Amino acid sequence: MMYLGMYSFRGDPAELLAGHDRMLALLPAGQLDVHLCVQTEEGIAVLDTCPNREIFDRFSSGREFQELLTAAGLPHPDIRHLGEVKSYVLPPGAGA
């Protein structure tokens, strides 16, 4: 089971994408399962999975996440709960 949440960052997409790249570089390898970053009209949206909602809530409201955002130069995002992932399809050879 996985839980999907979305972080919406508003601002200049180029600056936010650079900040997202910095954030990814700060994370240990293998920490992310399904993680997508999409450029939007307002900035970027990051869709990220956690094992369950409790872990998503704990991470997204925790000090570690705030420190990660600060270190990457990202503003605090709007956080949205999307729900439990019921199914997904990945290309052959891609792991999740």
Could you give a short description of this structure?
This protein has three helices and four strands; from the N terminus they run βαββααβ.
Q: How would you sum up this structure, described in words?
A:
There is one protein chain. With 96 residues, the protein is α+β, with helices and mostly antiparallel strands. Helices cover 33% and strands 31% of the residues. Strands 2-3-1-4 form a four-stranded antiparallel β-sheet. It starts with a strand and ends in an 11-residue tail after the last strand. The relative contact order is 0.30.
Residue-averaged pLDDT: 94
Low-confidence stretches: none
Following the backbone from N to C, one meets helices and strands in this order, namely EHEEHHE
Structural class: alpha+beta
Radius of gyration from CA coordinates = 13 Å
Shape: globular
How many strands appear in the DSSP assignment?
Answer: 4
Characterize the biggest β-sheet.
Answer: 4 strands, antiparallel
The CATH architecture classification is 2-Layer Sandwich
Give the SSE layout.
Layout: E1 2-10, H1 13-26, E2 35-39, E3 43-50, H2 53-60, H3 63-72, E4 78-85
Antiparallel strand pairs: 1-3, 1-4, 2-3
Helix pairs in contact: 1-3
Features:
96 residues; alpha+beta; Alpha-Beta Plaits; 3 helices; 4 strands; globular
